[in-house]
Amino acid sequence: MKFALFLGCNIPVRVQQYDIAARAVLDRFNVEVVDFDDFKCCGYPMRNTSFKAFLLSAARNLAIAEQQELDIMTLCKCCFGSLKKAAHLLEEDPSLKDDINADLGKEGMAYRGGEISVTHLLSVLHKDLGLPAIEGKITRPFKSLNIATHYGCHALRPSDITQFDNPIEPVVFDELVEATGADSVDWPLKLECCGAPLLGSNDGLSADLTDRKLTDAKQAGGSYICSACPWCQLQFDQVQQDICERKGAEYGPPSVLYPQLLGLAMGIDKNDLALDMNRIDINGLTGYQPQEQS
Question: Which residue of 56, 62, 67, 165 is surrounded by the most CB atoms within 10 Å?
């Protein structure tokens, strides 16, 4: 199994532990990932500012993967949604694709469409590899660990385009968490926004949305929040740290990236999963694991 790995802009700069942990886990499943230096911004930041810039940015990345005859796997759900949206729009409107290809042609590129697909890490694990394969790799399952899964917005909606999971009652992330031996708790604000889209434009409201979710997850019994998007991880890790320092409050549930959680259950050394790169300490996760599989 082989994919073109699309990291986007955020992960290489601010959430490098996501990349490190994902590669460590995928390597155990013999999933090959290929890096392309020509991959640039997915276009997401421009979606509400310049439609043409968004579409051109996304199409350029799609064209690169198409040239290499490789499906794209993203770690970022914003990148996933952006690339999926662009591919859908270009497929639905041939005249729009012609317009975009006129610009891509200046670089000697073109996007034909329909030849490659865009998927997310969680989909690769759940659908391509499958839960039995994941469970077969678990050597140190978690016990008595409650996890609050945070799905994020851009993978679930618009569901007819992303085709990630049921947008009202999703199960993919919960099942992946439970494959590690942990329990996925039900919590009222599970599908609500993390607040990341407002960071930089209304920091107060952004922090309030994050704090609200953290409080809800804690009240529901979640010992950790599990994320699979760099933007969401930054909110629950870095922004949470800022909130607690400002209020003089204790931390709510720390945030663990899913490949970090899975990697620990697979017996991968915590250093190879970059646990110490999280702002809020998550080394306590090792206390929920038996020394030997029962």
Answer: 62
Closest listed residue to residue 14, CA positions, set 210, 233, 243: 233
Identify the CATH number of the domain defined by range 140-273: 3.40.50.11810
Distance CA 81, CA 64 (A): 18
Dist. CA 124–CA 126, nearest whole Å:
6
Dist. CA 211–CA 209, nearest whole Å = 6
User: Exposure string (b/e) for 74-107, b if CB count within 10 Å is 16 or more?
Assistant: bbbbbbbbbbbbbbbbbeeeeebbeebbeebeee
The string of pLDDT tens digits covering residues 29-62 is: 999 999 999 999 999 999 889 999 999 999 999 9
SS (H, E, C) 194-220: CCHHHCCCCHHHHHHHHHHHHHHHHHC
DSSP string, 3-41: EEEE-TTHHHHH-HHHHHHHHHHHHHTT-EEE--TT---
Query: Global pTM?
Result: 0.97
CA dihedral sign, ordered 75, 81, 86, 91: positive
Q: What is the CATH number of domain 2-121?
A: 1.20.1050.140
In the block, tokens 């599970």 appear at 190
Residue pointed to by tokens 């914003």:
78
The letter for the amino acid at 216 is D
